[in-house]
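call fold target=ABC-type transport auxiliary lipoprotein component domain-containing protein
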Amino acid sequence: MIRSLSAVSLLALGGCINLIAPASELPPRYTLTAMEETRSEQRLPYSLAIADARAESALNTSKIAVRTGANEIRYMPEGEWADRAPRIFSVLLERSVEERGALLAVSDRVALPLADFVLYSDIQRFEADRTTEPTQAIVIFRVRLESRNGMILGVQRFETRVPVDGDSTAEVAEALNRAASELSSDAAGWALERLSNARS
């Protein structure tokens, strides 16, 4: 009886294994990759928390946004971001600052609830714009750097447009990754410049 049950279990397990699709058939998930940064020679005695980015509901999703009209947003039919767009953008900002190696600690507000400074961001556009020719990946966001006691050290707007080299989801995600990585690097440099003259 025990042997029979074991045989049935093995057959069932074999069936489950066969149900796993090949990698090429799994729906793709895309993320954002920070640029390689030159390590800073300056070491600042501060910790920095990266607040979760804000965005309107149309962008606060894992779907990859495409602008098809002046006030119309649709989404790519295949593939998604690995998390909500504001979340992966916040992680990108964190890694862009961390890559410089200039601070004592960089993380989100959960890990650093009492950080010396906080970097807030507000995503205004994070999409492929098909109302232009050729299609462009557009990333626009504002950042605000505050001390722990609420003093504002600076506010800055960042914007870039990158051509999309095709119509596929992978090509749109790649262009948005290039645009976001470039701007997050700029934002990291801006924040560190402000912090170099700051007092917590």
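return ok
The chain has one domain: 2-196. The first strand starts at residue 29 and ends at 30.
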